[in-house]
């Protein structure tokens, strides 16, 4: 695959969903940009004579060969983004899947196993709060009634958003028939880190996904006047919230883990009123389950101490937790060998591949990200490395399906 060929298809998707601020994206699942991206995918798939087969969860599948034959090799990723996110996280895997089909056809290959392309919905969980929602629904990892009731920040439920987009929310749910068709899943993704840059390698193979989770934290205090309430009389939930941010940062640093509080909602959120309550979300990740639970426990303990000291309430509720994912070692080693000994590396980022790995042999390919930055407009990979990623994905599909 040439960088020019990659760039031509890449540029056709690039303008969709730009949020108009320094190159960031807002592709919210079931929102206008997401629907436009999905139309783009359908058009590209039909241009390649692939057979479209969407499931009831909003995931798109496109097939080269008869999927009912089973034991398919499926590749793909997601098209939704975090708010003001980058262009590559998700879409690179989808564009690469389309181009890998082109590459195999130009090599004259006729797969002996069906090859499927997949686009999973709401991978970021940025709209409805649960990451990998589409692949969790497909695999039965989340109850469809709970999913239907998830709300976005405007109070719209997933069911409402689907209905507005012309989809039937009652179709949500596990789809053992479609899942049963998949014999192996390979997701190509921009690396969200600098390991490949440091190794000076354009492509790597995934070994594991760190265990990670999201916790909603609720801090409750007493609203009062900013100008007339003495400090000693305050029950200000912002103090315990501030302790949470510092505890997350310090405990993660101490344990070599990652903890982020990037989202907060203050009530009433007025300059001259002491907050009555604060909601915030902890995103915590670590190399092992033990390290993750000790990180979360340490953060929780420090917040409890601070909340008690300032007389405010505190609750911490797990919203989603993902255990460590060790990718199928046979698949991993076979792919790394086919790719001429490509480096093998873990990731701290969650992926649909992590959800599917509980059901089918799964692998990931990573494409070098020169700065390692992700979930931000500066997320970037060179056309040459992206083209190398397509070639690696085509080699992988050829190795597994042809
Ligand atoms: O948050 C993640 O780890 C992924 O990028 N959705
Ligand atoms: Mn992603
Ligand atoms: Mn992401
Ligand atoms: Mn007043």
- Which compounds are bound in this model? (2S)-amino(hydroxy)ethanoic acid, manganese (II) ion
CATH architecture heading of the largest domain: 3-Layer(aba) Sandwich
Give me the CATH fold name of the largest domain. Answer: Aminopeptidase
Shape: globular
What does the radius of gyration come to? 22 Å
**N- to C-terminal distance:** 18 Å
Supply the CATH class of the largest domain: Alpha Beta
Instruction: Tell me the helix content.
Output: 25-40%
Can you say what the CATH homologous superfamily of the largest domain is?
Zn peptidases
Low-confidence region ranges: none
Quick description:
By secondary structure, this protein is of the alpha/beta class. Helix content is 37%, strand content 22%. It has 2 domains: 3-210 and 324-401, Aminopeptidase (3-Layer(aba) Sandwich), CATH 3.40.630; 212-322, Alpha-Beta Plaits (2-Layer Sandwich), CATH 3.30.70.360.
Structural notes for this entry:
The chain is of the alpha/beta class and 402 residues long. It has two domains: 3-210 and 324-401, Zn peptidases (Aminopeptidase, 3-Layer(aba) Sandwich); 212-322, Alpha-Beta Plaits (2-Layer Sandwich), CATH 3.30.70.360. The chain contains 13 helices and 15 strands. It has helices at 3-13, 32-47, 91-106, 133-139, 144-149, 158-164, 176-181, 195-199, 237-255, 289-310, 329-338, 352-356, 383-401; strands spanning 51-52, 60-64, 72-78, 115-120, 182-190, 203-209, 212-220, 224-225, 258-267, 273-274, 277-285, 313-322, 325-326, 344-347, 362-367. Strands 1, 2, 3, 4, 5, 6, 13, 14 and 15 form a nine-stranded mixed beta sheet that branches. A four-stranded antiparallel beta sheet has the order 9-11-7-12, with helices on one face. Helix 3 (91-106) crosses helix 13 (383-401). The mean pLDDT is 97. One manganese (II) ion is lined by residues 82, 89, 124, 375. Residues 89, 123-124, 131, 349-350 line the site of (2S)-amino(hydroxy)ethanoic acid. It comes from Planosporangium flavigriseum. GO terms for molecular function: hydrolase activity, acting on carbon-nitrogen (but not peptide) bonds, in linear amidines; metal ion binding. Belongs to the peptidase M20 family.
